[in-house]
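User: Please fill in residues for this 129-position structure.
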């Protein structure tokens, strides 16, 4: 059980969550809200106040960064589309030549994952983890 001092104050939680409503709905808002609220835990009241003021004053800049037209969104990996054997790290490796001709590497035939183990396969799992 966490002590009362470790929990965020209600005003700090409310102000942080309200400030992040400037960020458009979706994954970015959810991620930032979870991260910034989690940082409040264990802080003293003074530190919570400083953190909350920082979130409130920087929320417009965060919105601008999230909604920028030139923002590059990382591709989301849909793990449920991978075959079950690949999710269990039981890949079917084959050797492939690099496009630039710089060498060869191993790649899974089913999911396309590249072997980060430089060809040293883990015999138990059928490939690199």
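Assistant: Residues filled in for all 129 positions:
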């Amino acid at each position: 059980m966490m002590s009362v001092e470790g929990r965020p104050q209600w005003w700090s939680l409310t102000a942080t969550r309200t400030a992040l409503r400037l960020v458009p709905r979706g994954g970015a808002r959810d991620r930032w809200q979870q991260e910034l609220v989690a940082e409040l835990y264990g802080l003293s009241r003074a530190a919570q106040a400083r953190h909350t003021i920082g979130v409130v004053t920087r929320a417009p800049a965060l919105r601008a960064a999230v909604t920028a037209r030139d923002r590059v969104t990382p591709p989301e990996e849909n793990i449920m589309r991978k075959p079950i054997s690949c999710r269990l790290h039981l890949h079917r490796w084959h050797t492939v030549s690099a496009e630039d001709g710089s060498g060869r590497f191993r790649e899974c035939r089913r999911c396309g994952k590249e072997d980060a183990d430089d060809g040293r396969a883990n015999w138990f799992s059928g490939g690199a983890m």
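For context: Strands lie at 93-97, 104-108.
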